[in-house]
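=== RUN LOG ===
request id: a7f3
mode: sequence -> structure
chains: 1
length: 101
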Amino acid sequence: MLENYYYILFMLIFAVIPSIILLVILRDRIVIKNLAISLIVLFIIGVIWDQISVRLGIWSFSQDKIIGNLFEIPFEEYIFIIFVPILSIMVYTLINKINKN
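=== RESULT ===
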């Protein structure tokens, strides 16, 4: 039964939790407006990419391994589209902070 939730669990473990931790640690270095604009642009690109890829059959999602769909894309994929860019931006910010010290 737990295997039905692997995708969401992986998103939590490898993207959401690390992103939140880094957001808290680096909160003094984040310009929320810039982060929000970046995420909006990347979200739009990610959703379009997923929609086209699924409709063309480039990839698909196992319906018994996801918690549900929104516009034929798994909820987990939307989490991926939001939190992987946040994680990337936070890792870049962390490296930049370390190099300046």
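=== NOTES ===
The longest strand covers residues 69-70.
The chain has a mean pLDDT of 93.
=== END ===
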